[in-house]
Amino acid sequence: MTETRPRSRKSPYPLWFFIPAAIIYGVLFLVPTVSSLWFSLTRWDLSTAEFIGLENFQQFFSEPFLVKGLLNTLIYAVTTSGLKTVCGLLLAVLLTSNIFARGFLRTLVFFPVLVSTIGIGITFTVMMHPTRGIINVTLETLGIPGPGWLTNPALALFSVALVDVWKGVGLATLIFIAGLAAISPDYYEAARIDGATRLQQFFRITLPLVRPATVIVVTLSLIGGLRSFDLIWAMTRGGPGFSSDVIASVIYKQYQAGFYGLSTAGNVILFALIAVIILPFTLWFNRREVEE
Amino acid sequence: MRSVRPYVTGAIALAVAAVIFVMPFVFVALQAVKSKSEASRLDFELPEHWLFWDNLIAVFKARDYQLALAYFNSTLITVASVTILILLSAMVGYVMQRRKTVWNRVASIALFMGLMMPPAVVPTIGLLQEIGLFKTMTGMILIQVAYNLSFSTLLYRSFISTIPRDLDEVALIDGAKPRQIFFRVILPLLKPVTVTNIVVQSIAIFNDFTNPLYYLPGKENVTVQLTLYNFQSMYTSQYNLLFMNILLVTIPPLVVFIFFNRQIVAGMTSGAVKG
């Protein structure tokens, strides 16, 4: 007599399991995110908010150094993301091929991912010291005059971007290694029989088939690059001048200066930037995947 | 000839990697054991006297044992937020994977937003002040839970799909209540992904700088990443102590890495694939 008991009609997967997480996430993430849309339209001192329409945005786009921050954010995100993708893929190909000390090399490349960004920032700031830093001292002994990595306004942003790539390329490599492992060796076997060179194999087999991993690496590093704050703050504080300011550092500076409405407008601009860049990319990729 | 090649490429790769990836860490370790004047030269010379303990003690003593307090605070934040994070994200991941309702769609969008969007900082500070959690450990812990929930939930959701539903049904027939099915049957089976979550999230939260900078100002609330930031301006003339501090902050992730290498790699890739 195994009649269905009344209780089994109720789902064994209680919806109240969502509630504690939803409260914390809703209150501390969603509410501020949604209310930032309102506060960005106000002159705000944390207790009273006076509606001023789009004035914050107007100010943001009329200050050359704030616009520079916006531009720098894009440059930084594209540079770091591009370099992480290219270097990550090449490293992954190298570290999945049959070479000596492969496991150890993987570990070595990945370790900086786990280390404190501030610690790395300070270390590289010291190593990039224009006269005493070991990078320039080494270059000098080779007869190359080293540049002022972080003191030259034209170079500072790219120097920080290079350190970002140094720190983060291990994660890209790891994702590519997982992607490469999913490619069947049969393809390479067939290509070799047909007489394809290694370069042809890379461009005709590896590159197309590793695309899911490529999309992940590009998306992750673009998001990371657009939001990037701590490394830039540790290395240059946005300087010299405003030459390496990005939106996230502008947000912090405006917050420190007490311009809460303007700071929040910076946040909204960052949301919009991420949405505009990442959403079409994700949608496009999902559509292509369905078509195939 | 073919059998030599892996060694040649391997040796070249090792040499290049040693320069690029090992040298900065050797540099940190070297500066950390030097005297003040030797460290200020910022070079690769070996120290004349190895001052490991002297520098270690000096760093801990600085600013009324600020580093010791920072270790305590960072550990507390990490342990508490990871514990809450594990429990809540496992619950959400479980129901999301098992029961398809409208709420799933809502939850998926929320998770996606959480992965992509940067938090709106100043409104969050305003809100924390409103509810009395600004500059408190509780506030910081809850913030870390809120910000890292998406990633943990995605890891759990994909792992739970590998656990057969038959198991839930057997437990149900045996008369287990829904709550018991989760806590007694499912949660213990999630151990591998729980370990991954613990490792990946504790490293992320321990290394976090931006959130404590915004939500946890104040001398008594200092975290290890903030000591680095504070010491950076204070110790520009005492590089040995600055680098000793960096070394000390690097050690916890290093230890975790040595013990949990495999889980970190698994977590990073599966999280990334889902993200």
Automatic annotation (TrEMBL), chain A:
Coiled coil ranges: none
ABC transmembrane type-1 domain ranges (all copies): 70-281
Membrane topology designation: Multi-pass membrane protein
Protein location: Cell membrane
Pfam family, one: BPD_transp_1
Gene3D superfamilies: MetI-like
TM region positions: 15-39, 74-96, 108-128, 165-188, 209-229, 268-286
Keyword flag Transport: yes
PROSITE patterns named in the record: ABC_TM1
Alphabetic keyword roster: Cell membrane, Membrane, Plasmid, Transmembrane, Transmembrane helix, Transport
Domain of life: Bacteria
One cellular-component annotation, GO: plasma membrane
InterPro entries: ABC_transporter_permease, MetI-like, MetI-like_sf
GO BP annotations listed: transmembrane transport
Similarity-based family: Belongs to the binding-protein-dependent transport system permease family.
Protein name, entry field: ABC transporter
Gene source species: Rhizobium leguminosarum
UniProtKB/TrEMBL annotation, chain B:
Membrane-spanning residues: 12-33, 70-94, 106-128, 140-160, 181-206, 239-260
Domain (ABC transmembrane type-1): residue spans on this chain: 71-260
Topological category with respect to the lipid bilayer: Multi-pass membrane protein
The keyword Nucleotide-binding is annotated on this UniProt entry: no
Assigned keywords, A-Z: Cell inner membrane, Cell membrane, Membrane, Plasmid, Transmembrane, Transmembrane helix, Transport
Domain of life: Bacteria
Localization (cell): Cell inner membrane; Cell membrane
InterPro entries: MetI-like, MetI-like_sf
CDD domains named in the record: TM_PBP2
Any single Pfam family the record assigns to this protein: BPD_transp_1
Entry GO terms, CC: plasma membrane
Purpose: Part of the ABC transporter complex UgpBAEC involved in sn-glycerol-3-phosphate (G3P) import. Probably responsible for the translocation of the substrate across the membrane.
Assembly with partners or alone: The complex is composed of two ATP-binding proteins (UgpC), two transmembrane proteins (UgpA and UgpE) and a solute-binding protein (UgpB).
Entry-linked PANTHER family: ABC TRANSPORTER PERMEASE PROTEIN MG189-RELATED-RELATED, SN-GLYCEROL-3-PHOSPHATE TRANSPORT SYSTEM PERMEASE PROTEIN UGPE
Family label: Belongs to the binding-protein-dependent transport system permease family.
Full protein name: sn-glycerol-3-phosphate transport system permease protein UgpE
Species this chain originates from: Rhizobium leguminosarum
Gene transcribed to yield this protein: ugpE
